[in-house]
Design brief:
Layout lengths: L8 H21 L29 H8 L5 H13 L3 H14 L10 H8 L12 H12 L3 H8 L4 H11 L13 H11 L5 H12 L4 H12 L8 H5 L6 H8 L2 H9 L29 H7 L9 E2 L2 E2 L1 E5 L2 E5 L5
Antiparallel strand pairs: 1-2, 3-4
Helix pairs in contact: 3-4, 6-8, 6-10, 8-11, 9-10, 13-14
Pfam family, one: DNA_ligase_A_N
Family: Belongs to the ATP-dependent DNA ligase family.
Keywords: ATP-binding, Ligase, Nucleotide-binding
Length: 333
């Protein structure tokens, strides 16, 4: 009988009694003999399968040990503060204040390298190979919700907000009432996620952390996976909050940990640093200084200049070796 397992014990007994009474009346009417039967025991009520299970042991203990500067909710708060500030200088000032005075307004005690790696997911990249539709597919199964409804909600929107919305509506995967995640837990989760390729493995891995997330936690984790925290701040604004020379060093080294070691050092105090080019380190393209007119360029170069000229699709390039300048084609002819 459809829905029988969902009835209360009292209602099931009443239904079973009515069925027995009806069967007795039929046997009496048609003179049917009873055959001994084993007593029927009501089937146990099938409980819904628990989709989300906390599987990161000691999460709350780890949060206490890490201190406030190691909590993921403080990371979320910084992201929100940077997002809500329109001035780039003030964005940098917000970062500098946290990394100097910490969340307790006294001293920063967190892992500054870890904070920077998570604040710059588009720079310090992990490869997850998870596009929007793949994320929707995974979470529709985790939340036990309609895949079609999630896709409709996603149209023209932000996948992190779609997942956050359906997380609050899920009946089988309830959000945590308070965030106890630490930055270490989230970083370890993302590191392991980058190694997984199969759908079932990813689902099981997400389940381990989703049950510990508030809706806002999960929203930011999804944005970390997508590589965009949507706070309108790049590497320059974050690194300038650590040290005035940090971004210049980063352009040469492209290694967050090395940049922080140079700028702050082992003692934790800021020191003056100079950028050094590291072998085999990619260099970002740099644009020349803007010039409004030919006359302005001539004033800036009173002793003459060398220029690159394009002839019939072939660009002539200037190569400098000490004080010697030579022209070459792109094929070095």
């Amino acid at each position: 009988m459809d829905g029988f397992d969902e009835l209360s014990d009292e209602d099931r007994k009443m239904v079973e009694g009515k069925l027995a009474e009806s069967e007795g009346n039929i046997r009496k009417k048609y003179n049917l003999t009873d055959t001994p039967k084993k007593p029927q025991t009501p089937k146990p009520v099938k409980k819904p399968e628990i989709e989300c299970q906390a599987d990161v042991a000691g999460g709350s203990d780890m949060a206490r040990d890490a201190g406030k500067d190691g909590l993921f909710r403080e990371f979320r708060r910084l992201v929100a503060d940077i997002t809500n500030e329109s001035s780039y200088l003030k964005k940098t000032a917000i970062v500098a204040k946290l990394f100097t005075h910490g969340t307790d307004e006294i001293e920063f005690r967190g892992d500054i390298k870890l904070w920077c790696r998570l604040l710059l997911p588009g720079v310090v990249k992990r490869i997850y190979n998870l596009q929007n539709k793949q994320l929707v597919t995974l979470f529709s199964k985790i939340f036990g919700t309609s895949h079609v409804n999630m896709l409709e909600h996603l149209v023209g929107g932000d996948v992190s907000e779609t997942i956050q919305h359906f997380f609050t509506l899920s009946k089988i995967c309830k959000p945590a009432s308070k965030s106890l995640l630490t930055l270490d837990i989230v970083d370890d989760f993302l590191e392991e996620l980058a190694k997984l390729t199969k759908e079932e493995e990813r689902i099981q891995h997400f389940k381990k952390i989703v049950s510990q997330c508030t809706p806002n936690d999960l929203k930011i984790i999804i944005r970390l996976i997508k590589g965009d925290l949507k706070m309108n701040a790049g590497a320059k604004h974050i690194l300038d909050g650590i040290h005035s020379d940090a971004y210049q060093v980063f352009q040469s080294a492209r290694d967050i940990d090395a940049v922080i070691d140079k700028c702050i050092g082992q003692t934790g105090h800021k020191s003056s640093v100079k950028a050094k080019i590291s072998p085999l380190t990619p260099v970002l393209p740099m644009l020349a200084e803007a010039c409004r007119s030919v006359e302005e360029a001539m004033k800036k170069c009173p002793n003459g200049m060398y220029s690159e000229i394009k002839y019939d699709g072939e660009r002539v390039q200037v190569h400098k070796n000490g004080s010697q300048f030579q022209y070459y084609s792109r094929s070095l002819k």
